Structures are given as structure tokens and as C-alpha cells.
Amino acid sequence: MSIVTAIVDKKNYKKEFAKRIEDYNKYIEEKRVVIEESRKNEIRIRNLIYESLEHSINETNLFGKRLFEREVQHPDFLQIYLGKGTVESANQVEYPEQEFIDTEDPLCTVPKEVSEDYKYINDAPIISDFNQSCGIGIVGNKAYLQEMMKNITLDIGIRHFFNEVKLVYILSPGYAEKMEWVRWLRNVENVKSGIRNIAIDEESKNVVLEDLYAILSSREESRKEEKDENFAFDEQYVVFVTDAASIAKHPISKYFKNCVDYGFTFVFVEEYEEFIPQGCAEIIHVTDPNHGYYVNTENGDNISNFEFATVPDTVAEDVAFKLGAVAVDEVSLEGELTKNITMFELLGIIAVEDLNLEERWGSSIVYKSL
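The structure assignment produced for this chain is given below.
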């Protein structure tokens, strides 16, 4: 009798085990559908926030509503679009980890496998955070570096208001001709000195560096007096340097490691990583005309490969022309308030006849004041 019972129990166990696997697999498939929908929504939102450069250029041609849309207080301010690649999802699949795993149970590892399957999102925007990084390094072949500088410049110029983000270029001779189109952007205008923030020789480099050093020194003092930790300067500066060694001995170099506190980000463009100054939070490697990879120096294992589009110089110059012609009236009460007023305006006197001199002379008693 015990033998028959054992055989029956074994059959029942197999049936129950098979049903358990079937039910659990059905449950997992349902969850996969939910997760995939969530991933589709996440990639849609990412693409909406971080539009591709092609879309941004089209926005300029149409004079669309998203021009200059990013402001200092926005979380995506100076979040620069590099290209498309694979990133970790912001909504990871969570599951209770087990201290003991039954190796004979095929379902024990399924939750972990599902989590790993949906850990990353493909064809997502790759972003570099210029707002929180003191230094950004861009490394690669000189021709590829020029393309990346062009893309970053266009992304900043299209998305950020020229009175809130100022661009500065300290260029070595090999880059000057290729980047001459940036002079049309209003972001490079220096209103105080009446020049453009572009240095291509020793004389112009000294002028630009002295101006930047004065601003940094002034902001350093302001920061010491400011008690609000979230205080942000009205103007942010992005400084492109194609030869870090040429400014290494200038006093401005002492700000490389903490310039983000004063509203500055230095972008060092070099052919070899060894030439990039210390303190860079992010390194962008450009490997060919359309590919590169991004590394956050806090975690060297966190590497994001990306693909980027090449923008013809003629298109870049056309965008710069269009952006350079834009004028924006800032909302201010200053223009509404009267700065000065004359006595005649206070008395409502517009012309000489309004004074009625004959009547005034006849009624005056000037002798009483003698």
C-alpha cells in the first residue's frame, strides 16, 4: 500500500510542479508586457526632453517654440545632447533577493533574469551634464573633435538664451578657421567690452583670459558672502579650450577644479587624454566621425557608447545666422518707470503759450520779495 501511495504522491507532485511553472511563466509574461510599456514611455519622455540635434536644427528653421527653452532653474539646464546610445533605465525592476537559492528550482533565478533583461534602454539620448561639471574633456582625432565642438555649440546656442549662457572660445590656430562661424552667435558677445569672446592669437587670448579671471574673482567674493547654498549666477559660462597647456600658467587655472561654484564650465579639447587637466568630471572620447563613448570619472566602469550625427559647416553657419538675428524683449518694469521728469512736465506745460505770461505778470507781486 505504501508503494502505491508513493507513486501517486510523485505523480501529483509532478502535476503540481508543472502547473506551478506554467502559472509563474504566465505571470512573468504579463509583467514583461507591463515593463515593456513602461520602457516605451520612458524612451518617449527622454526623447521629448532631450531632442536630437537634427530636431533642434529644424526647430531653428521653423523658429519653433522650443528655442531658448532651458532656464537656469530647470533640471535640464546645460544638459548637453551628445547622441544616441544605451543607458541604464531610471526605473529599475526591483525584486526581493533571496539569501538561499534552491538550485533545483528553475524559477528561483527568473526575477533576476527579468531585472537584467530590462536594466538598459537602447537608442536613448546620451547626455553630458555641463551644469554640474567643473571640467569636461573631449579626446580624439582633431577632425572628429571639431565635429563634436560644433554639435555641442549648436545644442547650447539653440536651447539656451544668449543672456543666460555665454560661450567662450580659446582656440589654437588649427581650429580657428573651422570654428569661425560661431562669431554670429549672440552667446559669444561681450557687451561690456564690445568684443566677441573668441581668442585665436596671443593678444586676444590675454584680453579674454583677463576678463574671465576678473569675473571669476568677483564671483568668488560674492560666493563667500552668499548664505544661500542654492544660489545661482544669472550668467553661466562655457569655456572651450583647445590647448590647455597654453593657459596652464595663467592665474585662471586655479579655478579649474571648482569653477562650477562660480557658474563656469571648462571644456578641454585635446587629441590625447594625457593633456586633459586634472579635475574633469566627464571625458568624451570621439572614436570616428559618428561614434564615441562617454565616461564619468567618478566611476570609470560606467561607459556609454553613442552615435552622433555630423552637421555640415554650411548648416551650422546658417543656424548661427538665424540665431544671431533673434532679439528678445525681456520682461522688466525698468522700461515702464520714468527715470527723470522736468518741472514743465509736472505742471503740464507743453508749449510757451501754456504759461500765459501776460496774466502771470499782471498778477505777480514781485516787489514784496525785494
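Interim note for the steering committee: The chain is about 35% helix and 20% strand. The two ends are 143 Å apart (CA to CA).
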